[in-house]
TrEMBL record:
Belongs to the precorrin methyltransferase family. This is uroporphyrinogen-III C-methyltransferase. It comes from Streptomyces smaragdinus. GO terms for biological process: cobalamin biosynthetic process; methylation; siroheme biosynthetic process. It comes from the Bacteria. It holds the Pfam family NAD_binding_7. SUPFAM superfamilies: NAD(P)-binding Rossmann-fold domains, Tetrapyrrole methylase.
Length: 399
């Protein structure tokens, strides 16, 4: 049996004998812990040598000699010379220095656990003398913490405030690791209609899930009502996640929420998300750029028609480019958008596609030349949410 402990090695001398692969694997954690590492070895791997050249460790290029461990707090004995290892571990014993031996775990006074880290949690696993099993358990725990499938909410040091999390286009696997973890730690989740709604089912029963579309907004605008709900819950000391579709800053009104929170004196963490503008075309095999075909892509909101006085888009200029156009929120105005582009120079036969509910089980795609896209969208009953892609890249999707 071993007795697990967390060594606080900052500024403490740690002696590493041998500069091979074992030392290479162990040194980064010792350096990260702030240990004063002395490597004693006639040679070292290029990576270990780089640590010495970079000033992260001290290196004495020579074999082990008696006395090296006298003032160490901890020792790692990894030379390829069994006799030197035995002498060093005897010296460690004599000086009461905890000593790890790579060649003979049975003779060591300390064993190195399989370690991993995730968001401030250190995972250390020891399984007797089965390092592969230790590593497997470590991987499973770290993976669970990363993804949030292993819920480990913080109880101390939990930062008050709101996390604005980009949830990706809909497939629950396309949220970021950080987003998923924050979701697992939330007390309150205010979610949009778009995004990975399946993840909401996984939340524990105590989590309050609020549908942003259903927040009563009385005399307020809907966005103000959402801002107020975020502020109210955060001020009540709850861990609040504002879960948005795609990326919060791509037509997501994320900035308005960040500003409202700042005005209320609340902090806000923004977690980027996988935007539908790139991932939804990608899900049906359409690359937004392709060498020799499109050297740029432009993401445009189609929520107002090109001739609408509120439009901020220079459609004539876009019509003149050769690059890919990705239009979000444009299904209802597809005819007006296509007309404006063709009128200002985009060829009528430019390949185009519309993808509805990309990355979800309900994903659908229709294709048509630009001049016929709106008619095909109507005939095939393509509805929001959908992304429209216009450009020669549409032909590069293996269709
Ligand atoms: C208000 S915008 C939000 C965009 C989001 N912030 C993003 O980065 O993907 C909503 C539009 O995104 C597009 N969209 C989002 N998710 C989609 C999906 N899974 N499939 C197709 N279009 C999607 C549609 O054009 C939809 O009307």
């Amino acid at each position: 049996m071993t007795y697990p402990v967390g060594l606080r090695l900052e500024g403490k001398k740690v002696v590493v004998l041998g500069g091979g692969q074992v030392a290479q694997r162990r040194l980064p954690a010792l350096i990260a812990a702030g240990a004063d590492v002395l490597l004693v070895s006639p040679d070292a791997t290029p990576s270990v040598e780089a640590m010495a050249t970079g000033g992260e460790i001290r290196w004495e290029r020579r074999p082990y000699r008696d006395g090296d461990l006298a003032d160490a707090w901890y020792a790692l004995v990894t030379t390829s010379d069994p006799d030197a290892n035995a002498r060093a571990s005897a010296e460690a014993e004599a000086h009461r220095v905890w000593c790890v031996r790579s060649d003979d775990a049975g003779a060591a006074t300390a064993w190195t656990p399989a370690t991993g880290r995730s968001d401030g949690v250190t995972v250390a696993v020891l399984t007797g003398r089965d390092p592969r099993r230790s590593a497997a358990v470590r991987d499973a725990v770290v993976e669970g913490l990363h993804t949030g499938t292993l819920a480990a909410p913080r109880h101390r040091d939990r930062a008050p405030g709101v996390a604005l999390v980009g949830g990706g286009p809909g497939d629950p696997d396309l949220i970021t690791v950080r987003g998923r973890r924050l979701l697992a730690e939330a007390d309150v989740v205010i979610a949009d209609r778009l995004g990975p709604r399946d993840l909401l089912d996984e939340l524990p029963p105590h989590v309050e899930v609020i549908d942003a579309a259903k927040i009563p907004y009385g005399r307020y605008m809907a966005q103000e009502a959402i801002n107020n709900a975020l502020i109210e819950h955060a001020k009540a000391g709850k861990a609040v996640v504002r879960l948005k579709g795609g990326d919060p800053f791509v037509f997501g009104r994320g900035t308005e929420e960040v500003e409202a929170l700042a005005a209320a004196g609340l902090t806000c963490t923004v977690v980027p998300g996988v935007t539908s503008a790139i991932s939804v075309p990608g899900a049906v095999g359409i690359p937004v750029t392709h060498r020799g075909v499109a050297h740029e892509f432009t993401v445009v909101s189609g929520h107002v028609a090109p001739d609408d006085e509120r439009s901020l888009t220079n459609w004539p200029a876009l019509a003149q480019t050769r690059g890919t156009l990705v239009v979000l929120m444009g299904v209802e105005r597809a005819a007006a958008i296509a007309d404006a582009l063709i009128a200002h120079g985009r060829p009528a036969d430019t390949p185009a596609a519309a993808i509805q509910e990309g990355t979800t089980a309900a994903q659908r795609r229709v294709d048509a030349p630009l001049s016929e896209l709106a008619a095909v969208i109507a005939a095939e009953d393509i509805r929001p949410p959908a992304v429209i892609v216009i450009g020669d890249v549409v032909k590069r999707s293996g269709r």
